Amino acid sequence: MRNEVLWLPRPDAVEATNIGRFGQWLSRREERDLTSYPALWQYSVDHLRPFWGSVWEYFGLGKTVPEHRVLADETMPETVWFPDESFNYARAVLTAPGVGDDDVIVRAYSDTRAPVEWTLTDLREAVSRARAGLLGHGVRPGDRVAAWMPNIPETFALLLAAASIGAVFSSCAPEFGARAVIDRFSQIEPKILVAVDGYRYGAKEIDRTAEVREVAAALPGLGRVVTLQYLGRSDPEGETWDRFCAYDGGIEFEPLTFDHPLYILYSSGTTGLPKAIVHSHGGMALEHAKMHALHHDLGVGDRFFWYSTTGWMMWNYLVSAPIVGAGIVLFDGAPDPVGMWRLAEESGTTFFGTSAPFLMACRARGVKPAREADLSRVRGIGSTGAPLPAAGFDYVYNEVSATAQLQSLSGGTDVCTGFLGGAPTVPVWRGEISCRCLGANVRAFDPDGRAVTGREGELVIVSPMPSMPVGLWGDPLRQRYRDTYLMDFPGIWRHGDWITITERGSAVISGRSDATLNRGGVRMGTAEFYSVVESIDGIADSLVVHLDDEQEDQLLLFVACKEGIELDDALRQRIKRALREQLSPRHVPDAVRQVPAVPRTLSGKKVEIPVKKILKGVGPDEAISTDALANPESLRAFM
Fold it and tell me: Any alpha helices (H) in 86-198, and if so which ranges?
């Protein structure tokens, strides 16, 4: 059924979409037809310099650049992009094309306070005031600005204020525990910390004042703590946000190199300290302009929403949308399966982004979004964070929207974008990611390093992308960088997923290659299990591990059942029969056990490897940093 077409591009897509118009413009320039997606993608990876130079020029990020100065060195990780160009990310966001000063550019919703709307003028003023506060406290280019802040407009303004100066921004979400925040921020030694006094998650009020003090005391070299009184506490730590932002100093944009650090993101940190991944001003603006305009078809008048916290790369991805003129919709709070769809209606969202686990949770609860909200404005639905199974595709088209384009994306914090996704000129096939993104030379490699089509291989990127990190913090010789991404296939980026690329250019992600199961010499991706198991009525979530050593060889499947459902022998047999019939006899687990919940990271990823360690006798604190988990209590079921 994977080849079933669920959505087709509109007949006039070449004339009516951003990617179609870009293809026409580039076709005239190159004197060849680049209006079909396969032709445009092939051009984008075969001709990196003219392609990325055309994106740079087309979206007004800078003047025309000679091809040889678009990419001066394409050797990873020493890649050098646009070496002669000065650039500032904040300028690109705040000079949104076609957006008037009085147009609303930010709509923000929250469990903690009433909705907020900012026009472009309001955003510029907020950035100006935050910038004055930073400068007044001695923040200069290269200094780190840390935010323990929720997904609210003030956090966005702080990012842009830091960027305007050339300071390096980094954020953690308020739901991160103090230990998780210290593990991240202590690596980068911020000069200033901005935090909230607390927040509400649904009906629950969470005070963070004591934790702010704990974090501040643990950060070497911290010069100032600023507290935004989000809950209205009377004794905030340090200076208040209102006082910090008391002066409007105007905005100037420091001219920076293309690769100047913009912000630091972190790997999940499920084992050991999370990697501090450094992304650049130019790389983020160029990549996100391409994705937002060409893949998501965003522009002036659109409203872009992606449910995220400030601790997930999707927040950084979301807030770049004004670069192409689109407004953004922010939400801070509990992702209610009905409320999120009603928020889409209220906010006028035209592209609704979320995670695969959220869509599957809505399906498991029987939520019918099309009946709960008017989603007629929604043209695109994005899903990421985990592979979306075929049943999730069915759910979107049966219960959410029959007309919106579903874009299942795969990418990562390491590149702060999706390198597999969808486009307005590409069909949606059930259970598949529609295409490799423009400029992303993604391949499936067999163990000998040969590209394969139609069968599973290691996901690699064989050509540099502008959004690849400029480094890992504290790794000046880039040795850890090489060990992390470029060791298995020298000079080629290995991402750590199993992928199958079809003859038509679509893709299927089978799971993490470091969580691969090997049953009787047959390699199996975990995503295959989850797709089958979680489509069974009564199953809400699942996790599979393979205990394989000299003492034992057991394939164990853990399932979380829907409310009111118990795992009995009949349900066990249905699960085993489905795996046998839809996958193979080798996929049938030795045991199926019920657990209250599946452990997931703060960004929603399942944690198979730490669970495997716990089952083999490793202590939970040694197997995983519990502060990296959204539901650490779920580990008890595996101890």
Answer: 89-94, 120-136, 153-165, 178-188
Over the stretch 98-135, which tens digit does the pLDDT of each residue have?
999 999 999 999 999 999 999 999 999 999 999 999 99
Q: Rounded to an integer, what distance in angstroms lies between the CA atom of residue 171 and that of residue 67?
A: 35
Helix runs in 417-559, H state only: 479-485, 526-533
Q: What are phi and psi of 13, to 5 degrees?
A: -60, -35
CA 7 to CA 629: how far, in whole Å? 36
Which DSSP symbol is given to 128? H
- For 229-272, write each residue's pLDDT tens digit: 999 877 777 899 999 999 999 999 999 999 999 999 998 766 56
Q: Which of 422, 426, 464 is nearest to 442 (CA)?
A: 464
How far, in Å, are 159, 285, 436 from residue 59 at the CA level?
A: 22, 10, 21
Lowest-pLDDT range, 36-40, 281-285, 420-424, 564-568? 564-568
404: three-class secondary structure by DSSP: coil
**Phi and psi dihedrals of 184, rounded to 5?**
-85, -55
**CA 438 to CA 426: how far, in whole Å?**
12
**Is residue 130 packed enough to be buried (19+ CB in 10 Å), middle (13-18) or exposed (0-12)?**
buried
Running DSSP on this structure, what letter comes out for residue 292?
I
Residue 179: Cβ-neighbour burial (10 angstroms; 0-12, 13-18, 19+): middle
The CA–CA distances, whole Å, from 459 to 44, 383, 411, 446 equal 19, 19, 11, 9
* Continuous segment of H or E residues that includes residue 401: none
What is the pTM (predicted TM-score) of this model? Answer: 0.89
| Residue 602, strand partner residues | none
As a whole number of angstroms, the distance between CA 139 and CA 147 comes to 14
Helices 48-58 and 281-289 cross at an angle (nearest 10°) of 80
